[in-house]
């Protein structure tokens, strides 16, 4: 991704991402006690890099994130972007690397969902109000 990413445009997420990037990952890694990372996807329509902050978990060497969108009816835009282009950029603290992301399949999701709801229990409430199954995304280094 050769261009500077466009950060998430909304309120607290934009502030979180700005703090994370400007501090080189020393600020913003924890959000209300939960670990966060930054992903940079490629906009499926614009082709521009898009960056957002997400709570993450681990499954061995893999990172896990949840496409909750707060339990909204639709998947978040970043999820649609990574479905169209699964190669993403990742920042975890000060470490920056390229990765490939994919939704967990039906056999993987229950265990990984449990991992993520232990980290951020609000996901359970989001799933209860969402009219869709909320995806768990697996991120692996490229």
Summarize the topology.
Elements: E1 6-7, H1 11-22, E2 30-31, E3 34-42, E4 49-55, E5 57-59, E6 62-66, H2 77-84, E7 87-92, E8 95-103, H3 109-119, H4 122-129, E9 136-141
Parallel strand pairs: 1-4
Antiparallel strand pairs: 2-3, 3-4, 3-7, 5-6, 6-9, 7-8, 8-9
Family: Belongs to the F420H(2)-dependent quinone reductase family.
Protein name: Nitroreductase family deazaflavin-dependent oxidoreductase
Catalytic activity: oxidized coenzyme F420-(gamma-L-Glu)(n) + a quinol + H(+) = reduced coenzyme F420-(gamma-L-Glu)(n) + a quinone
How would you sum up this structure in a few lines?
With 142 residues, this protein is an alpha+beta fold. It has helices at residues 11-22, 77-84, 109-119, 122-129; strands at residues 6-7, 30-31, 34-42, 49-55, 57-59, 62-66, 87-92, 95-103, 136-141.
Description of the structure:
Helices cover 27% and strands 35% of the residues. The radius of gyration is 14 Å and the shape is globular. The chain contains four helices and nine strands. With 142 residues, the protein is α+β, with helices and mostly antiparallel strands. The chain has a single domain (6-141), classed as Roll (Pnp Oxidase, Chain A), CATH 2.30.110. One of its GO terms (molecular function) is coenzyme F420 binding. Belongs to the F420H(2)-dependent quinone reductase family. It catalyses: oxidized coenzyme F420-(gamma-L-Glu)(n) + a quinol + H(+) = reduced coenzyme F420-(gamma-L-Glu)(n) + a quinone. This is Nitroreductase family deazaflavin-dependent oxidoreductase.
């Amino acid at each position: 991704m050769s261009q500077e990413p466009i950060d998430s445009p909304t309120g607290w997420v934009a502030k979180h991402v700005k703090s994370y990037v400007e501090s080189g990952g020393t600020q913003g890694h924890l959000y209300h006690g939960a670990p966060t990372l930054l992903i940079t996807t490629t906009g499926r329509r614009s082709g521009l890099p898009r960056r957002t902050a997400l709570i993450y978990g681990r499954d061995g060497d893999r990172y896990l994130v949840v496409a909750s969108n707060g339990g909204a009816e639709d998947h978040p835009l970043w999820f649609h972007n990574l479905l169209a282009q699964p190669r993403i950029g990742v920042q975890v603290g000060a470490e920056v690397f390229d990765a490939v992301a994919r939704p967990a399949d039906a056999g993987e999701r229950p265990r990984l969902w449990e991992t993520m709801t232990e980290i951020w229990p609000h996901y359970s409430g989001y799933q209860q109000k969402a009219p869709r199954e909320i995806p768990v995304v697996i991120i692996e280094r490229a």
